[in-house]
Design brief:
With about 100 residues, the protein is mainly alpha-helical. The protein has one domain. It is about 75% helix and about 0% strand. The protein is built from three helices and no strands. Helix 1 runs antiparallel to helix 2 and helix 2 packs antiparallel against helix 3. The longest helix is centred in the N-terminal third of the chain and has 28 residues.
């Protein structure tokens, strides 16, 4: 079965997205240990970045028909939103001096 140019471009972009999400996950893992007290909100932000990488990988698996992840993409996005909100609240606490 011959693939159309659209399918080729779509497949290549999906593979590029997976590679970039692995890089983003690796960078966030390496930065996680260096987040100090002043950068406390970054821990929540880095967890959301790792979860974003997982969502991208789930999407690629579903696109290529390797594995149907079901509702896990939606559940993981909910966790990403929760960690982003926690990061924002922690950043406000650090900026106002409430977190010492």
């Amino acid at each position: 079965m011959a693939l159309t140019p659209y399918e080729w471009i779509y497949g290549v972009t999906q593979i590029a997205v997976v590679v970039l999400s692995f890089f983003a996950g690796g960078i966030s893992f390496s930065l996680f240990s260096s987040a100090t007290k002043k950068l406390y909100p970054w821990k929540f932000l880095l967890v959301s970045l790792i979860l974003f990488s997982v969502v991208i990988i789930f999407g690629v698996l579903r696109t290529f028909g390797v594995y149907d992840v079901g509702p896990w993409t939606h559940i993981t996005v909910g966790f990403i939103l929760a960690f982003l909100i926690a990061s924002l609240v922690a950043q406000i606490m650090v900026a106002k001096g409430w977190l010492k």
